[in-house]
Amino acid sequence: MEIRSTTDQDLDVFVDTVHAAFGRFPETPADGGGLWWSALEMDRGLLAVTADGRPVGTAAAYSFELTLPGEAIVPAAGVSAVGVLPSHRRQGVLSALMRYQLTELRARGEFLSVLLASEARIYGRFGYGPATCTQRLTVQRHQASFARPRGTADAPDTGSVELLRRAECGVILEEVYDRYRRAQPGALSRPHRWWASGAGQPPVTPAPRYVAVHRDAGGVPDGYASYSLGESGTLTVDETIATDDAVSTALARFVLDHDLVTQVVFKHVSPDHPLRWQLADFRAGQMTDDDWLWVRLLDVPRALTARGWFTDGELVLDVDDPFLGEHGRYLLTVRDSKAECVPTDRDPDLSLDVRDLGSVYLGGTAPSTLVRAGHIRAHRSGAATVADALFRAERAPHCLHWF
């Protein structure tokens, strides 16, 4: 078997192979929707090919930016379209693809990769750890009253909401999302080519949607909610983007006040979103949780010095990377919001797998939680407490982008 990089000429073969791996057939554009593979970067794709030239596996990567705690924005490879034909599974094809890809990412100078896991059991063994969660919030319309009447909230809204169709506001969506993601830990960029080609899921794809666009007092767009209403009376919000809590509340009130609706489903809500607490009936909002963004560190010192920090402190981290056969011990020192991370032979405070370092990296998982779970080993009393204080973020990391 050979693993090789793809070119633009391999697009059809690549698309056919990854669809076959998942037992599906390539869809065709419908109702104005885009094709997800139109955003593929074919110079970043991989094909696993048998000796007689048959493609049996695929992997791809997108060029994204990831917002870290402290509003640091860094390059990140978005791993996607990973699949192996059913006829060639459990023969080492996937491991070979992932090892080849990680080597390529490092050769490009990248120190972080991220993905969305189709199955939670697969990617931990390749060094990826779940780093952000998203929640699905369902609110019954008859229980949707707010605890505080409109206009009495702590942060009163001075703007307005305008209803547009998706086809009318593509530029607005792109600009507002870009402002939002630059300040939100865990958020990924949406390159212009995604919006231009309609790749991905609504509202990136131009599939028919209504969009509630919020404007500030000066008329500048600063938030939106993309939604559709089904025949059953369920109003589904693809995503709500807001630059502050007042905007978020105004958009939530807008969709919850919609006529001829039995329930409103918010597909992607941050774990620290205040909406449930704003409702008069706390139980009116039913939550389901799901992991979303998985993070993999390719260069531990570069990754740890790239993000912002909010507490001074010091830790010795003993990091094992079994998939790549690597091991390192690092002294992490944080002073005045900046970190230094260097190799050391000092006794470790914490021993952990690189996948667990990925899980705590964005601040969404407390190191002490993984100590209690048996993933991380603390070698001295108080080490987990120090790690919790160091790795926290200014707010819960959240990622909306599908890729």
From TrEMBL:
Domain called N-acetyltransferase: residue spans: 1-191
InterPro entries to which the protein is assigned, alphabetical: Acetyltransf_17 (IPR041380), Acetyltransferase_Eis (IPR051554), Acyl_CoA_acyltransferase (IPR016181), Eis_dom (IPR025559), GNAT_dom (IPR000182), NAcTrfase_Eis (IPR022902), SCP2_sterol-bd_dom_sf (IPR036527)
Pfam families: Acetyltransf_17 (PF17668), Acetyltransf_9 (PF13527), SCP2_2 (PF13530)
UniProt KW keywords: Acyltransferase, Transferase
Keyword Signal belongs to the record: no
Active site: 123, 403
Gene3D superfamilies reported for this sequence: 3.40.630.30, SCP2 sterol-binding domain
Positions with a binding annotation for acetyl-CoA: 82-84, 90-95, 118-119
PANTHER family in the record: N-ACETYLTRANSFERASE EIS
Family per similarity comment: Belongs to the acetyltransferase Eis family.
Assembly and oligomerization: Homohexamer; trimer of dimers.
The protein, known as: GNAT family N-acetyltransferase
